[in-house]
Write a structure and sequence with these properties.
This protein has 378 residues and is of the alpha/beta class. It has 12 helices and 12 strands. The longest helix is centred in the C-terminal third of the chain and has 21 residues. The protein is globular and about 70 Å long. It starts with 15 loop residues before the first helix and ends with a helix. The chain binds pyridoxal-5'-phosphate. The site of pyridoxal-5'-phosphate (PLP) has 15 residues, from helix 3 and helix 4.
Length: 378
Amino acid sequence: MKQPIDVPFVNLGCQLGQFRGRVLELWGQILEQGAFIGGEIVSRYEEAFADFCGAKHGVGVASGTDALLLALKALGVGKGHQVITAANTFVATAEAIAHSGAKPILVDVDPKTYNIDVKQVEAHLTRQTKAIIPVHLYGHPADMAPILEVAGHHGIDVIEDASQAHGAEYRGRPVGTWGHLGCFSFYPSKNLGACGDAGAVVTDNERLALRLRQLRNHGAKSKYAHELIGFNSRLDSIQAAALLVKLDSLREWNQQRRSCAALYDDLLSGVSGVTTPMASGQVLHVYHLYVIRTPAHLRDSLRRHLGRQGVQTGVHYPQPVHRTRAFSKLRWTKCPMAERLAGEIISLPMYPGLREDQIRWVAHVISDFMDHRLSKYA
Ligand SMILES: *Cc1c(COP(=O)(O)O)cnc(C)c1O
């Protein structure tokens, strides 16, 4: 076997050279002016990000989780309501629903895209259903058209959880503006990441945007005019400055992710036992994660083998939300696909700056392993 190559799961340092100077300069200005909360740089970033998404308004908040919670609050979701989302999302989607006072209804997903299945949404609508949160999981947009159709038909709001899909497109238009509100996380490892926690909500609806601005700042319309019971969930200028600079490179970084994915696809699509991720014809996938499927009985041993060969991997996520201890009291719907996926998926290294020789090494280790293991048990 060849000499192992180290392939980290993510490498946030790769692009540092591209933005370091400009970020430090803005940070210097912020330090001198002492404008840490709010201020010009925050509104500049909000406008730039909304623009990037093709939305009229952008509201910066403290995290992606808060973006979802404030979006639910802005729509009046609370006690006595139900909100439908996918069972295989990051736990934060369900947490935001629970914290709003509503009940999360976790439903099963499409076996090809791993995104929420609109038939399952329809099957679980009740009179309490107030909103649907499709998640654009791994950077692949959910199938928005039928979701919006069902929602429109029943007078239900749609909030997109676009935390993994900055810059992804559905039918030629960016995600985030398909629903009533689009929520983003700028957690450092996301496709657009801050230097700490940050998030945003985008919308074309001015009334909702105003409400979100109030909610994030103690419900205040102007200083001490507290009209709602709000939150402290502001985007600070230190994060906004970093995001403003990094936003310029987002398209290029997404393109690099797509090239890496294309090479993985190429090298892995013929390997027996491996299912590569699909990108349906109507989407631009931005590969926040590159997730393959393997036979469940080989998943963990393949991960261990990759680890020994220098390749770090992840599992997103090891359990569907309803199988976590935190949500175990939830009365759940049957989600056989989400449960099956949890045992079969592996996230391979993926980040802009991942090199061709690294991708080739990962693919080589996987196909070698599969050849050996599958022939042994044939
Ligand atoms: C990251 C993420 C969130 C939460 O974002 P934070 O900024 O970490 O609060 C929510 N939903 C999904 C799908 C995510 O990937």
